[in-house]
Amino acid sequence: MTEQEKSPNEILKLSLDQVFILLEQQDYDQLQLLFSQAHPGQLADILEAMPPKERKQIWDLIPELQEAETLTLLNDEVRNSLIVKMPTEELVAAVEQMDTNDLADMIEELPEHVRQSIEENLSDEIREHLETNLSFEEGTAGRLMSQDVITVRNDVTLEAVLRYLQLHEDLPEYTEGLMVIDRGGFYQGKLLLNKVLTHDEDTLVKDVMNIQHEPILATTSEHEIAHFFEQYHFVSAPVVDENNRLLGRITMDDVIFILRAESDRALMSRDGLDEEVDLFAPVVSSTKRRTVWLAINLATAFLAAWVIGIYADTLDKIVALAVLMPVVASMGGIAGSQTLTLTIRGLALDQITTGNSVWLVRKEILIGIINGLLWALVVAFIAWLWFQDPGISLVIAAAIFINLIAAAASGVVIPLILQRLNIDPALSGAVVLTTVTDVIGFMSFLGLATYFLI
After folding, report:
1. Which one-letter DSSP state was computed for residue 352?
2. Confidence (pTM)
3. Which CATH superfamily includes the segment(s) 8-144?
4. Which of 327, 330, 313, 452 shows the shortest CA–CA distance to 394?
């Protein structure tokens, strides 16, 4: 396979291998040359894949011109591990090259003395832009927006717009259109660049601008922003205050960042981890982070064990029940997790509301009944072949039926309740669901066995 035919993941893996080899050979000149030709995104990936000692070595070899963008692309924990070791002068030089929205995202994580040093050394214009971003809550459009926006008035001609654009050495990234404002700075619409190039130069902006290009309110959440871009396929969108005054814009690269963060959050939170966790963090900090989640799981495990302990006498008399218990719990857990995953996805996409949640619960219960009947028969048949005991076969069939219905209902109801309580369903839903299916599974199986077989 040629270099051109390799997938991006294979190229990244090759780059990491090359970096480790050059580090081992202490060929720092070659590393500097390699990093000078790399994109900041590649450098960020390489830094996140390095143990702490090697990470510091790599960072010292990255060209100063690439430090700012590389920092913005690192996850919080890795970035902070580098920042605390950077001289203040170097850090100030790096942040001066950042967009204010990137700086706003980072600066509150810094030690107070470092933050003060940075703010004291910023120009008045950058400081003012930074204060604007920081005036909005984290996770909103106002915090995320860039104020690097080209605006035009609605009462000028396209010829004037074209002359105005020619005064710029370069346009901001992802500029497919210009924001149209009136003399008071209030948003009017968007003038796409193709209109400037294809219409008569005497045409007024207001006659060709897109007035249906809705702005985003500065207090809009990141999740709503991503949904907005997904619906309308925008490259960039204006951000306004409550009075419709233009404040800045959000671009598609910001939305890609939001989507990746949401994806990481959903993946990591299922096991109680932060999406910003550093894979190569020190042992002590990593251990502390995971211990909390292990403690929660231990508590739920003891709850299930306590339920089993209630029926210890039954298990002593019928050993076959102990053999079959994991089947009941496992079937319930799998069925519940399928429903839970679909429900959490529906909540994330805003597809579930009070108007359709009852219908969804009914649907999942019906699915649980059908699956319960089907797999109860299958498991009962296997149990009969195994133990030649009709009583055990009927008991496990009934327990499977009950647990699959409970699992299906719980998979919908649990995330809905957690969301109502402002608890992230992706973070705690799986633990609650596992506890419910284990407890109901064991109680139904062992309870029925105690009643009918003892």
Report:
1. -
2. 0.64
3. MgtE N-terminal domain-like (1.25.60.10)
4. 452
